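Backbone-to-sequence.
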C-alpha cells in the first residue's frame, strides 16, 4: 500500500483495479447482484459480467442463487468466498508475539500467543516465530498471504525497526531479509499502529462512510496510523504520524528517541503502572503475568471506587486527550479509534478525554470528530496484521491467486 500517485495505467492495471473494486464491494456487502455492482462502480453490466466470470473461475467469488433486486426483479446473487481465502496475521511486540489465522472477511479461526523476555536471544525468538508460522501453514491449506505487524518507527525501505523504547537488541534486525524467503507465500510488513488503522478501516463497522480514520495505539508503546480515502498515510519512509514521539513537555524526561517529554512517556502501559505503584504500592506489589493484566487491575480498582486508582486513570485520560488533540489538528479525521492495552479502561477514560479535547480544539472541529475505543473482538494489531494481507488481496486478487498456486 502506498500514498504515491501513479503516473499512468495500462489495460491490465485497469482490469485489476476493476476486479479489486468488485471484490471490495462483496467484502463489505456480503451478497450483491451484478446490477447493484454495476450501479456502485459505474461500470457497464457487460463489463461486470466479464470480470465476475474471471473471479468465479479463480474461486474468489461464487453465485448464491437469486436475490430480490430493484423493482422486485430477481437477480443472481454473488458472494465472496471469504472462507476459501485465508491469511495469517502475526503481531510482534515488546514482550510477546501472536500468530492468528483469519479469512478475508475478518473471521478468526485460531490464535496463539507466545511471551518472551527482552533479554532473550533474538535468534531464538525469531526461530520460534518462524516455526509457529510453518506449523500454521501446514494445518491451514487455504492461506494465501501473511501479514506481520511490528512496533514502530519501522523504516519500510530498510526493513528494520528504527527505535523502540526498551528494545535495543531488535534495532538491527532486518525483518525483510529474515522472512522474505522463509515461506512460499507473499509476506507484507507494516508498523503496528498502521496495521491497527487498517483493521479498523476494514472491520471496525463504524457506521458511516469515512474519509479519514485515525487509529491511536496506546499499549506497550504509543503511536498512530492514519487511513485516508482507503490508503494509509505513510510519509517518505513509512513512519508518518508518530504521535507517540511528539513532545507534550519540552522540559520533560528524555526519551530514547532523543526528544524530551514524548507523549509515550506519559500514557503507555508502563507509564500508567509506574503511577499506579506510586499511588497504590501495596496493590501493585503482586506478581502479574504481563502489563495488560496489571493495567486491567488498575481499571478494575477504579471501577470499584478506589480514589487513587481513579486519579491514575484520570491522568492517563488527560494525556490520551493531548494525543487526540494533536491528531485532530494534524489530520482532521472523521473518527479517532483508541486501541490496545489502555483501551480496556474505555468507559472510565472517555468522559475525561472528550472534556479535555473539547476544551483544546476549535468547536467546529470537535463537533465533527468522533472519539471511541476499539470494539474489535480481537487485538486490533493482530487483526491489523491480517488486514495488511487482506488489503493487498483485495487490491490485487489475481496476483494473490497466482502466488497461492506456486
Amino acid at each position: 500500500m502506498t500514498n504515491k500517485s501513479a503516473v499512468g495505467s495500462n489495460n491490465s492495471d485497469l482490469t485489476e483495479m476493476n476486479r479489486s473494486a468488485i471484490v471490495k464491494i462483496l467484502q463489505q456487502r456480503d451478497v450483491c447482484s451484478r446490477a447493484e455492482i454495476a450501479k456502485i462502480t459505474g461500470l457497464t453490466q457487460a463489463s461486470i459480467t466479464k470480470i465476475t466470470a474471471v473471479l468465479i473461475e479463480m474461486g474468489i467469488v461464487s453465485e448464491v442463487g437469486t436475490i430480490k433486486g430493484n423493482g422486485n426483479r430477481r437477480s443472481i446473487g454473488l458472494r465472496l468466498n471469504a472462507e476459501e481465502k485465508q491469511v495469517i496475521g502475526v503481531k510482534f511486540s515488546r514482550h510477546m508475539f501472536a500468530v492468528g489465522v483469519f479469512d478475508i472477511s475478518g473471521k478468526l479461526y485460531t490464535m496463539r500467543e507466545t511471551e518472551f523476555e527482552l533479554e532473550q536471544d533474538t535468534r531464538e525468538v525469531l526461530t520460534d516465530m518462524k516455526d509457529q508460522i510453518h506449523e500454521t501453514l501446514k494445518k491451514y491449506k487455504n492461506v494465501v498471504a501473511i501479514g506481520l505487524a511490528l512496533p514502530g518507527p519501522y523504516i519500510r525501505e530498510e526493513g528494520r525497526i528504527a527505535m523502540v523504547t526498551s528494545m535495543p537488541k531488535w534495532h538491527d534486525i532486518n525483518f525483510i531479509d529474515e522472512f522474505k524467503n522463509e515461506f512460499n507465500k507473499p509476506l507484507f510488513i507494516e508498523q503496528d499502529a498502521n496495521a491497527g488503522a487498517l483493521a479498523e478501516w476494514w472491520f471496525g463497522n463504524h457506521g458511516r462512510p469515512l474519509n479519514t480514520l485515525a487509529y491511536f495505539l496506546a499499549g506497550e508503546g504509543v503511536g498512530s496510523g492514519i487511513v485516508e480515502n482507503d490508503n494509509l498515510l505513510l510519509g517518505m519512509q513509512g513512519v508518518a504520524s508518530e504521535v507517540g514521539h511528539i513532545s507534550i513537555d519540552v522540559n520533560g524526561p528524555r526519551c530514547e528517541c532523543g526528544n524530551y517529554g514524548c507523549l509515550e512517556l506519559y500514557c503507555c502501559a508502563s507509564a500508567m503502572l509506574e503511577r499506579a505503584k506510586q499511588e497504590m504500592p501495596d496493590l501493585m506489589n503482586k506478581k502479574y503475568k504481563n502489563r495488560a493484566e496489571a493495567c486491567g487491575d488498575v481499571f478494575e480498582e477504579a471501577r470499584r471506587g478506589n480514589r487513587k486508582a481513579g486519579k491514575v486513570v484520570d491522568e492517563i485520560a488527560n494525556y490520551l486527550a493531548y494525543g487526540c488533540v494533536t491528531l485532530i489538528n494534524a489530520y482532521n479525521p472523521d473518527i479517532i479509534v483508541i486501541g490496545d492495552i489502555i483501551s480496556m479502561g474505555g468507559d472510565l477514560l472517555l468522559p475525561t478525554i472528550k472534556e479535555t479535547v473539547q476544551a483544546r480544539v476549535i468547536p467546529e472541529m470537535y463537533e465533527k470528530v468522533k472519539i471511541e475505543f476499539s470494539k474489535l473482538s480481537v487485538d486490533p494489531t493482530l487483526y491489523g496484521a491480517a488486514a495488511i494481507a487482506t488489503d493487498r488481496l483485495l487490491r490485487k486478487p489475481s496476483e494473490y491467486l497466482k502466488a497461492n498456486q506456486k
